[in-house]
């Protein structure tokens, strides 16, 4: 059975969640995944989808996925953020990562994005090499800044009196 790369369907979200967990395990954050299948289904396939996802599938088996969503750059205009690109370990090295990244880049251009951005862990040299080989710039002088759900609540309580 051949492998196809296609837009994800709502019914794929269970497999997508498994890939997300595999990535979290690889990134040494096995307990960090809080999203569930129902949330992915609602957020990706509701009236106003919050993300777009591509999958690499062999029949009903998902071997990889790339999840992205729109952003806006004050310097460039419309942009696309690639949240995660994962190929299951047993299917690496056969071109699925390249195929998924190509679909994301094509989707970005079709939707008027002037930039595609994503993060990669500084110790993930195979991923860094993969992206560099495809023309991506690795910006080592930027730090990722985040507030998690508790941080959002604490911020609003502390600094906005909410």
Q: Can you characterise this structure?
A:
By secondary structure, this protein is of the alpha+beta class. It has a single domain, classed as 3-Layer(aba) Sandwich (Aminopeptidase), CATH 3.40.630. It contains five helices and five strands; from the N terminus they run βααβββαβαα. It has a five-stranded mixed sheet with strand order 1-2-3-4-5. A hairpin with a 3-residue loop joins strand 3 (61-73) and strand 4. Helix 1 (13-26) packs across helix 2 (37-45). The mean pLDDT is 96. GO terms for molecular function: N-acetyltransferase activity. Residues 3-161 form the N-acetyltransferase domain. Belongs to the acetyltransferase family. It comes from Robiginitalea myxolifaciens.
């Amino acid at each position: 059975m051949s492998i196809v790369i296609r837009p994800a369907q709502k019914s794929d979200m269970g497999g997508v969640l498994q890939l997300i967990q595999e990535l979290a395990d690889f990134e040494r954050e096995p307990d960090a995944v809080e999203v569930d299948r129902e949330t992915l289904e609602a957020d990706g396939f509701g009236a106003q989808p919050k993300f777009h996802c591509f999958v690499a599938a062999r029949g009903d088996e998902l071997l990889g996925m790339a999840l992205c969503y729109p952003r806006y750059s004050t310097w460039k205009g419309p942009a696309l953020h690639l949240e995660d690109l994962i190929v299951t370990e047993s299917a690496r090295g056969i071109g699925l990562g390249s195929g998924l990244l190509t679909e994301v880049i094509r989707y970005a251009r079709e939707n008027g994005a002037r930039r595609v951005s994503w993060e990669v862990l500084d110790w993930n040299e195979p991923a860094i090499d993969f992206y560099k080989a495809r023309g991506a710039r690795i910006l080592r002088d930027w730090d990722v800044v985040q507030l998690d759900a508790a941080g959002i609540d604490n911020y609003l309580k502390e600094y906005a009196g909410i």
